[in-house]
Amino acid sequence: MRTFELEVRAVTAETPLIRAFELAAPDGAALPGFSAGAHLKIAVPGLAEPRCYSLIELAPDAAAFDRPTRYRLGVRIEDASRGGSRFMHALKAGDRVTVTGPKNDFPLHAPASGEAPVVLLAGGIGITPVASMAAALKAAGRPFVLHYSGRSRDQLAFVDELAALAGDALVLHADDDPMTRLEVGALLDSVKPTRGEAPHLYVCGPKGMIDATIDGAKARGWPAGHVHFELFATAAPVAGDQPFELELRQSGRILTVPADKTIVEVMEAAGCDPMFDCKRGECGVCTATVLEGVPDHRDYFLTDSEKAAGKLIQICISRAKSARLVLDL
């Protein structure tokens, strides 16, 4: 991935909480191509780690992905922002930002011609990668249906552009409207298999929506490989979390993991160099072997059988149910 500087060409308010940013090379040069689901890492002054924001593309044109002349981002201001969304919402035309990417951890696997329509499901700002998938599918002539949900109709961004892109394939949902409120179970029940096989489903949005979709699809017998998702949230404390002792067997170090810190965070603070990437329990890069103790699995990477065995853990997000955890690190 490249790291380079981009200029903010335009900022538009899409909703009271979401702004769209158009970024381009200062000299107008072509930008690296990307695929639907990709994101940029934005350097934020004062923060050690960059913030990731999905690229949104609503033109059903392969050239918009392969040979872009500008990037577009959608960013929601967060009440609990640690600085990323506040920094982004303070940008104005003419400002410059340092970016790395594009990178895609949420790739689209377009179905073969004649298969069931791809089901796209977005909640809130999760529309950004999902909208790009709709555009890519439209450009490829692949069928899809796009469900987009928010707390209220005025919190749904890019609606006019989405309607122009998707037409009747766009279904809007608002939590405050009983007639359109999203019911994940009912949505999954409405999806009909093709030749006995469930379609591919892509979901991005709040953790509760993603969990309900994964659990609902599993209960209905959907293959795990047909449900694709991306979380925007990293690990967060859960009520009842307790500190625990962590032993790194290879180095012999003993650390304490507080209730409000992850294993990765504690290891980094202690000068260790743990392997990790997404910090959301999705990618599997941080997998470690458990030698003693009982993991508290909170990831989306390990299978049910692997979690039940208790021999592996994703150290970026999972914790310990036992007072002590020994890892082969």
What are the key terms here?
Rossmann fold, single chain, 329 residues, Ubiquitin-like (UB roll), alpha/beta, 3 domains, five-stranded parallel sheet, 20% helix, six-stranded antiparallel sheet, Elongation Factor Tu (Ef-tu), domain 3
* Strand percentage: 25-35%
Major sheet: order of its strands? 4-3-6-1-2-5
Overall geometric form: globular
CATH architecture of the largest domain: 3-Layer(aba) Sandwich
Tell me about this structure.
InterPro entries: 2Fe-2S_ferredoxin-like_sf (IPR036010), 2Fe-2S_ferredoxin-type (IPR001041), 2Fe2S_fd_BS (IPR006058), Beta-grasp_dom_sf (IPR012675), FAD-bd_FR_type (IPR017927), FNR_nucleotide-bd (IPR039261), MRET (IPR050415), OxRdtase_FAD/NAD-bd (IPR001433). It holds the Pfam family Fer2. Its EC number is 1.-.-.-. The protein has 329 residues and is an alpha/beta fold. The chain has three domains: 2-103, Elongation Factor Tu (Ef-tu), domain 3; 118-231, Nucleotide-binding domain of ferredoxin-NADP reductase (FNR) module (Rossmann fold), CATH 3.40.50; 244-327, Beta-grasp domain (Ubiquitin-like (UB roll)). Helices cover 20% and strands 29% of the residues. It is built from eight helices and 18 strands. It has helices at residues 62-66, 84-89, 127-140, 159-166, 184-190, 207-219, 263-269, 304-309, and strands spanning 2-13, 18-24, 39-42, 51-54, 71-76, 96-103, 118-123, 144-150, 170-174, 201-205, 227-231, 244-248, 253-257, 287-292, 295-296, 312-314, 319-320, 324-327. The protein has a six-stranded antiparallel beta sheet. The protein has a five-stranded parallel beta sheet with strand order 9-8-7-10-11, with helices on both faces.
